[in-house]
From TrEMBL:
SUPFAM superfamilies: P-loop containing nucleoside triphosphate hydrolases. It catalyses: ATP + H2O = ADP + phosphate + H(+). This is DEAD-box ATP-dependent RNA helicase RhpA. Residues 403-412 have a biased composition (Polar residues). Residues 34-207 form the Helicase ATP-binding domain. It is an enzyme of class 3 (hydrolase). GO terms for molecular function: ATP binding; hydrolase activity; nucleic acid binding; RNA helicase activity. Keywords: ATP-binding, Cytoplasm, Helicase, Hydrolase, Nucleotide-binding. Its EC number is 3.6.4.13. Residues 378-394, 417-426, 435-450 have a biased composition (Basic and acidic residues).
Length: 484
């Protein structure tokens, strides 16, 4: 393997940009793939995330694109990504390594204005990075002509399969010129993916740099046994987060996106710097959340597999599997978010008694047992009231809104479903009303004495006439004292 990038055939502009970015030695997939890409060979690259896969096609593409010019609405190269986040990261790579070039790059993803995308397409783009759905939308609108594509990159093909994008990819490939170069990358090679490669690639070079069951040795894996109760799992997670020495930031994985939102809100209520990342969020919120996590403004990122797949955040210190993944390969993808670029990392998986078959599949895949880790003491689910001071003001005001008495004190309503979920079993069974320290209930003797019967407002028929000494009593005064 070459000791530096100068021996791979890249142009001086590209090698200078790589050196300026602080990289001196290519990774294994970069060393193997770059020379073949420069020879315009079709490639099947099998590699896990975190191996430098993106640069293995970005760097040679930049060199190949130095000659030629883009025409209006006819991109010269097309890169397909399964998610908006991955597409945005590839765009960042072109900006970083292409700083010595004058190439135009367009990002065609959901959540971005069609008008902004159309302006770039009309001027002509050298590199078009897109998600399959939005690309087909633009094609059907007549905004993109794909007859000029010279290089096609299909990235994260196994995730494309999981998300149901294979039919869209087949439609896109059918619209591209047959004489093109195709670069195909995937972490695994399911039968459906193999059929795709045999149909759309010509005499591809197969490059495999890591076995699918490989786990980075710099990751310290741990397993924590917890009860099936969601409340106990949340309490165990909080105890682990507080007890981990050296926790700088962490990605917390859930299997379902609705659980992502629930867990993120629970962590926020208990005073943690946390936010969720899932597919139902709009693009602006997703990018803002990711930026906050990358810049250390946010400590805990709660995410689903789809949302977090391929995130390039080198300095993640911990990964928590709040749910054991149902697919063993996802375990490798998840814990691979930490321990990147030679750094050490820690992954902790919370497993319930019902997760046995999933754990067995994971241990068979990685060919080792995950070392057990014991929690300190018993799991105790904290009442939400203890974390009220950390809630957003509008949430506190909404939760604390009750019935105001005449003396200014507040009679709070019975705890709702969300509150009961954050309380332990004994508190749920007791059904006792909760006492808020911030609004103590005054003693009965401090209440004002009721008015004598002769001084109480006289009841009478409701009328629209102005209120006077002899007129009927207005409706708003007919409510009993202290009524809701």
């Amino acid at each position: 393997m070459p000791d530096d990038f100068s021996g791979l055939g890249l142009s001086a502009k590209v090698t200078d940009a790589v050196a300026a970015a602080g990289y001196t030695k290519p990774t294994e997939i970069q060393a193997q793939a770059i020379p073949y890409v420069l020879e315009k060979k079709d490639i099947i690259g099998i590699a896990q995330t975190g191996t430098g896969k993106t640069a293995s096609f970005v760097l040679p593409m930049l060199t190949l694109l130095e000659s030629g010019r883009a025409r209006a609405r006819m991109p010269r190269t097309l890169i397909l990504e399964p998610t908006r986040e991955l597409a945005a990261q590839v765009h960042e790579n072109f900006e970083k390594y292409g700083k010595n070039h004058k190439l135009s790059v367009a990002l065609i993803i959901g959540g971005v204005s069609f008008d902004d995308q159309n302006k770039k397409l009309d001027r002509g783009v050298d590199v078009l990075i897109a998600t399959p759905g939005r690309l087909l939308d633009q094609f059907e609108r007549g905004r993109i002509l794909m007859s000029g594509v010279e290089i096609l990159v299909i990235d994260e093909a196994d995730r494309m399969l999981d998300m149901g994008f294979i039919p869209e990819i087949e439609k896109i490939c059918a619209k591209l010129p047959p004489r093109r170069q195709t670069l195909f990358f995937s972490a695994t090679m399911a039968p459906e993916i193999q059929k795709l490669t045999s149909r759309f690639l010509k005499d591809p070079i197969r490059i495999e740099v890591a076995r699918k069951n490989s786990v980075v040795e710099t990751i310290d894996q741990k397993l924590v046994r917890v009860p099936n109760s969601p409340e106990d799992k949340r309490a165990a997670l909080r105890q682990l987060i507080r007890g981990e020495v050296g926790l700088k930031n962490a990605i917390i994985f859930c299997n379902r996106k609705r659980d992502v939102a629930t867990l993120a809100r629970s962590l926020q209520r208990h005073g943690f710097s946390a936010a969720g990342l899932h597919g139902d969020m709009d693009q602006k919120s997703r990018m803002e959340t990711l930026d906050s996590f990358k810049t250390d403004k946010l400590m805990l990122l709660v995410a689903s597999d789809v949302a977090a797949r391929g995130l390039d955040i080198p300095a993640v210190s911990h990964v928590f599997n709040f749910d054991v993944p149902t697919h063993a390969e996802d375990y490798i993808h998840r814990i691979g978010r930490t321990g990147r670029a030679g750094r050490s990392g820690i992954s902790i998986t919370l497993a319930t008694p019902s997760d046995g078959k999933y754990l067995d599949a994971i241990t068979r895949l990685i060919q080792r047992d995950i070392p057990p880790m014991a929690l300190d003491g018993n799991i105790r689910e904290e009442p939400v009231a203890e974390a009220r001071e950390h809630e957003p003001r509008e949430r506190r005001s909404r939760r604390g809104r009750g019935n105001t008495r005449s003396d200014g004190s507040t009679q709070h309503a019975a705890p709702g479903r969300a509150d009961r979920q954050e309380r332990n079993g004994s508190e749920i069974r007791s059904q006792a009303p909760r006492v808020h320290q911030e609004a103590p209930r005054p003693e009965r003797q401090d209440r004002p004495e009721p008015l004598p019967e002769t001084q109480k407002p006289r009841r009478g028929p409701v009328s629209d006439t102005p209120f006077g000494s002899d007129g009927p009593v207005p409706a708003f005064l007919l409510r009993p004292t202290g009524a809701r």
